[in-house]
Amino acid sequence: MPALGIGLPIFLLVQAAIAWFSYSEIAHSNKTVAALIGLCVFVVPVTLAFWSGKVVDLVFTELVLLCVYLLIRELSNRRLSSN
């Protein structure tokens, strides 16, 4: 279990930002499950962080996945606009 220090509020804020981004992206396409997915994106990583104790690895993995998603979305938008 990770130490409950100054990093905990920072970790929770990062998780909230990632969950809000996920919610806002999904809300554009399907509003019925957006809140559920946003909640899961917040709760599951927090649970995994306390279970495994590897907070930095978890946040780094989430940020890499977020960057990959944004890159794919940008490339997809460019491809659609060029046609």
From TrEMBL:
It comes from the Archaea. Keywords: Membrane, Transmembrane, Transmembrane helix. The chain crosses the membrane at residues 6-26, 33-52, 58-76. This is Sporulation control protein.
